[in-house]
């Protein structure tokens, strides 16, 4: 047991570096992906089929294909088309795509939960489309989406460990490196699991609490 | 893309499907157990199950897979890549199934329990003949959408070397340097595989609904 703790103490700094990178990748993808998801959700409400069709394709592929395949598509595939990105940029592009696709559905559901009467009232007040969205729909629709968005953020943090396949030096890659050097696979992956659990368990509890509180009001 | 490349990737389908079904079966069985513990009314069992569910879901799938394949596998027991992937994904599925079943259990009307008790059905038959069929009907849509998610998650098993779709795609792209077409095809394959699952679930749901509709 003491040996394990000594081993953990020795490897923790390197793993924390990796975990910090995982958090960065997750943060970047959420910051880019959620606004993009909102744009996708709004774009889907357009009556123009020519606009709707490509957006729908983007969403369906982002949700339907495996994250790991999206990741490899960007990192190993795009260079064939003449675009070469670093591992960090590739991971951010793939995760942003995935985030935008999933959050567009979450945000759409949130906006649809706003009662129809609110829209009609806005129309009766002769608010234009942008003002209806800005002043009436979004302020009511976004709070409804928040627990689902936070739940998705937790899943994204977990998914960031998949960046391992494109050799981004995040926490999994670091752990695998330590494991293959020392053959101490069990302790090192338990440490990684504990790091994720330390963040995800409290976060899940908080999100569950928020969800219950919100559902009381509606 | 030549025919050989396509065939190589298509060859991964059987492993993807087999892995999905195996982990789903493990998940449904263990999930039913976890759900029974959570709803047993015994505080110690409830808390244990609650902790297990939280813990299983808090750790990313790839970490579970590596923990089982390299961690457990390099120690006492020999674990093949497929076994490690099936057990790892199965455990995560179990945690999610337990929550799905618990939600469905709440949706089965109280009167059904009371009526079964009034008929003095033994506890086992009360569960099997009265509650379980309704439970299945209520939880089927959630199980199907989880199964579709699981189908995509099996791609993670490619990191252990299970020769499923994503693994074959990686292999083909390394051989041919045609990453774009290869991974696009693999991505479409996952979407194509999930369509029949969604379709079958909707069909079964409608059939079961029409049988109990009044």
Describe the fold and architecture.
The complex is a heterodimer of chains A (218) and B (214). Chain A contains eight helices and no strands. Chain A is mostly helical and 218 residues long. Chain A has one domain: MetI-like fold (Orthogonal Bundle), CATH 1.10.3720.10. In chain A, helix 1 crosses helix 8 and helix 7 packs antiparallel against helix 8. The model of chain A has no long low-confidence stretch (mean pLDDT 91). Chain B has 214 residues and is an all-alpha fold. Chain B has a domain of 149 residues: MetI-like fold. Chain B is built from nine helices and no strands. At the A-B interface, helix 2, helix 3, helix 7 and helix 8 of A face helix 3, helix 4, helix 8 and helix 9 of B.
Describe the SSE topology:
The complex is a heterodimer of chains A (218) and B (214).
Chain A: H1 2-43, H2 49-64, H3 67-77, H4 87-112, H5 116-124, H6 129-159, H7 171-182, H8 185-217
Chain B: H1 3-10, H2 13-38, H3 43-58, H4 61-72, H5 81-107, H6 110-118, H7 123-153, H8 165-176, H9 179-212
Helix pairs in contact in B: 1-8, 1-9, 2-3, 2-5, 3-5, 4-5, 5-7, 6-7, 7-9, 8-9
């Amino acid at each position: 047991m003491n040996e394990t703790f000594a081993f953990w103490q020795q490897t923790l700094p390197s793993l924390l570096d990796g975990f910090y990178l995982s958090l960065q990748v997750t943060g970047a993808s959420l910051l880019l992906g959620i606004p993009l998801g909102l744009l996708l959700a709004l774009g889907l409400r357009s009556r123009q089929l020519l606009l709707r069709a490509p957006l729908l394709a983007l969403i369906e592929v982002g949700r339907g294909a495996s994250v790991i395949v999206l990741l490899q598509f960007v990192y190993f595939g795009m260079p064939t088309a003449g675009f070469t990105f670093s591992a960090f940029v590739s991971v951010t592009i793939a995760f942003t795509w995935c985030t935008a696709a999933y959050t567009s559905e979450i945000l759409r559901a949130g906006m649809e939960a706003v009662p129809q009467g609110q829209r009609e009232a806005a129309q009766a007040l002769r608010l234009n489309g942008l003002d209806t969205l800005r002043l009436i729909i979004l302020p009511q629709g976004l709070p409804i989406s928040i627990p689902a968005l936070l739940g998705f953020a937790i899943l994204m943090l977990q998914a960031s460990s998949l960046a391992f396949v494109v050799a981004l030096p995040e926490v999994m890659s670091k752990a695998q490196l330590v494991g293959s050097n020392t053959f101490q696979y069990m302790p090192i992956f338990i440490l990684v699991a504990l790091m994720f659990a330390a963040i995800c368990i409290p976060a899940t509890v908080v999100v569950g609490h928020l969800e219950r509180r919100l559902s009381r009001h509606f | 893309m030549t025919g050989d490349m396509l065939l190589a990737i298509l060859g991964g389908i059987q492993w993807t499907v087999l892995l999905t079904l195996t982990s789903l079966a493990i998940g449904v069985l263990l999930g039913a157990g976890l759900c029974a513990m959570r709803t047993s009314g015994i505080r110690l069992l409830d808390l244990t199950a609650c902790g297990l569910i939280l813990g299983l879901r808090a750790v990313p799938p790839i970490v579970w897979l590596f923990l089982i394949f390299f961690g457990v596998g390099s120690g006492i027991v020999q674990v093949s890549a497929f076994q490690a992937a099936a057990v790892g994904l199965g455990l995560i599925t179990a945690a999610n199934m337990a929550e799905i079943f618990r939600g469905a259990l709440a949706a089965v009307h109280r009167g059904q329990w009371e009526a079964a008790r009034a008929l003095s059905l033994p506890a086992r038959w009360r569960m099997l003949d009265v509650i379980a069929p309704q439970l299945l009907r209520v939880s089927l849509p959630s199980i199907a959408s989880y199964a579709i998610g699981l189908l995509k998650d099996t791609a993670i098993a490619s990191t252990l070397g299970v020769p499923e779709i994503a693994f074959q795609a990686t292999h083909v792209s390394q051989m041919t340097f045609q990453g774009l077409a290869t991974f696009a095809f693999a991505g479409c394959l996952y979407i194509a595989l999930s369509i029949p699952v969604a379709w079958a679930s909707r069909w079964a749901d409608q059939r079961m609904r029409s049988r109990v509709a009044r």
